[in-house]
Amino acid sequence: MNDQYSALYQSYQWLVPSQFNIAQACVHRWAQSPVEGRRIAIFHENSQGQREVWTYTRLSDTANQLANGLIKMGIQAGDRIAVVTEQRPETVAAFIAIFSVGAIALPLSPALGENGLATRLHDAEARVAIVDDAGADYLLRAQAQCPTLTQIIGLNFQHEAIIPWRSLLARQETQFQTMHTRSSSAALLLYAPNSIAAPKGTLLGHQALIGILPGFVAAQNWFPQSGDILWSPVDWNSAGGIMNALLPTLYFGHAIVSTAGQSTPGRAFETLARYQVSNVFLPADMLQAMMQHTPLPRAQYPLALRALMTEVNLNTDVFNWCAEALGVTPNAMFGCTEMNHLIGNSHKKWPTRPGSMGRPYPGHQVAVLDKDGKPCRPGRTGEIALNRYDIQGHPDPVLFLGYWRNDLATQAKFKDDWCLSGELAKVDEQGYYWYAGHSDDTLA
Q1: Taking the model in full, what pTM does it have?
Q2: Is residue 152 part of a domain?
Q3: What 8-state DSSP symbol labels residue 363?
Q4: Does 20 reside within a domain?
């Protein structure tokens, strides 16, 4: 194939406006046009198999109603608002409303339980929480440990201590003027999904969405193309679900499939076939389970896949199964919450090497560093790091703003202008990265 990597990487330049708001970029701008507003934003299917469709106009109107409600609650720019829900359209509306009012979205998984939720809500000093029936019991108990959490908006359940979602929105207008935010303004506060005692919150700016676009477009084989529909089972309360699937899909005005409840291999195949999904982000363990469940899926399901993004730890057997049985060559992608979509493959534009992490995506100056913070020579193991600046000398917008109220941890993440990922790799003579474990392992 024609290897286009060098030309794409060397010519890329960031165009980051001084003002940028994710809500406007991902939803409201599409809804402003009657034609674009009728486009489908979300195909939703709940755990009972019930389905509904949300257009960009419906999504924008709902978000605007919630935004008006939040303002009447006294929410101000910079306030933290928790979203504790399953994958559902209201989750997206909540994010868009929070961004619209200039507040900071705090996505949390119901699976964290009472203590996991309380720790994060308390640390973030969340003022409002939006929760559905999946996390309601845990959140209501956690509220007692969170003095700043004074309002709870509830979806699909009744309780005397909550404001029902429908009741709140029914009293609000569908028009709202999105706040003008700087691209560097905080938009997301993300915590690790495990229940460690003192988790660190990672703060991302609105500009982080711009920062992940080159990697997302490349890993999804030059998304978007006409009719592209994306699905991922990764929950929208995680960095992976939000930044690897949800927000970039909406940014391009295309449809994403939302599936609440457990994503079994059988349900995954049914989802891909029912919605004629063209683009997916599937974790390695899900692909392994799908391979074992249905070795020859195209004999059973009418699939329409054209791109598959996955993690860097995909083994060779699963890689080959994807290429042969699903008909798509997997594009590995590496990133972390602090700086996503750094390294990966795009097999339509440059050769993919099974087992390799790929090459740095355009816009990102990446290296593996030794213990002294110096780039390693080819074949030597070092820690993957991202420079604050791209090869043109411009700031990289994908880089996180810092850890929430933890300057010491933020400073420890850097060596000069290099932000350390905590993961190890080797680089070969052709610039391909090969994963080598965590940075607490001994460097070779």
Answers
A1: 0.96
A2: yes
A3: T
A4: yes
